[in-house]
Amino acid sequence: MTPPVAAEGSSSAIRRRGFLLVLSSPSGAGKTTIRRRLVELDPTLSLSVSVTTRPARPGEIEGRHYYFVDRARYDAMVTAGELLEHATVFDHNYGTPRQPIEETIADGRDIVTDIDWQGTQQLSEKLRDDLVTVFVLPPSMAALEARLRTRAQDSAEIVAARMAKSAAEMSHWPEYDYVIVNRDIEESVGEVQAIVIAERLKRSRRIGLADFVNRLRAG
Q1: Close Cβ partners of 219 (under 8 Å, ≥ 6 residues apart)
Q2: What is the secondary structure of 117-173 as a DSSP string?
Q3: Would you place residue 49 in the very low, low, confident or very high pLDDT band (cuts 50, 70, 90)?
Q4: Sign for the pseudo-dihedral over CA of 5, 112, 118, 71
Q5: Rounded to whole angstroms, how far apart are CA atoms 151 and 9?
Q6: Sign of the CA dihedral with 148 first, then 151, 152, and 154 last
Q7: Considering the domain 15-206 in this protein, what is its CATH number?
Q8: How large a percentage of the chain has pLDDT more than 70?
Q9: What is the rounded distance in angstroms from the CA atom of residue 155 to the CA atom of residue 60?
Q10: Which end of the chain is more exposed for a tag (fewer CB within 10 A), N or C?
Q11: Alpha carbon 24 to chain centroid distance?
């Protein structure tokens, strides 16, 4: 396993283990937009690319937005243990590949993904201390529905189904480390950036910190 890299802005003697940042929300509340903006602003933050059995939407690129696979390949990945989490959402299957996540964390780098509460529960069982979770709430149900209709990616029937499911999804907010209300996208991105900075400085992730302090005390 590759050793973690040095923590940002610290002595080279202090190294850091990375973490997986998970953003969850009802469809349309902004988790995907926040995720993309975070990666744009922080080049050290990697983007997790999920696999899915759903068809690509207009503008989506293989390997950038998702890995698009058929059901047979997806089932084979589940059976082989190649996915850290997997779930069925609106009749399509999604999953998080194991290898790139584990390698990134071990290298002392951070990675971000947006998945639902089902996937987050599975990740909590497998990654434990390497997981940071954020739930994104809409400012109102009316705003959520307006966002779903404005993005024009789904039919009216699917929008109605997503709205019907949103209340149940939001009931899982207490399971998350942090909760934000997405009234303004840039403000929300700033709040998640603050979470990332704080988590990078968490004592439990900083390897060699005790030795560094002992050397300081010894003069």
Answers
A1: none
A2: HHHHHHHHHHHGGGEEEEEEE-S-HHHHHHHHHHH--S-HHHHHHHHHHHHHHHTTG
A3: very high
A4: negative
A5: 40
A6: negative
A7: 3.40.50.300
A8: 93
A9: 18
A10: C
A11: 7
- Where do runs of H (alpha helix) occur along 19-129? 31-41, 71-79, 98-106, 117-127
DSSP string, 173-196: GGGSSEEEE-SSHHHHHHHHHHHH
CA distance 215 to 204: 19
pLDDT in tens, 78-108: 999 999 999 888 789 999 999 999 999 999 9
Q: How confident is the model at residue 11 (pLDDT cuts 50, 70, 90)?
A: low
Which tokens is 212 given?
């560094």
Asked if 119 and 96 count as a contact pair (C-beta separation under 8 A), the reply is yes
DSSP summary character for residue 19: -
The DSSP secondary-structure symbol of 24 reads E
Residue with tokens 């780098």: 109
CA distances from 208 to 15, 16, 90, 180 (A): 6, 8, 46, 33
- pTM reported for the whole predicted model: 0.82
Domain segments of the chain as ranges:
15-206
β-strands 83-89, 45-47: how paired?
unpaired
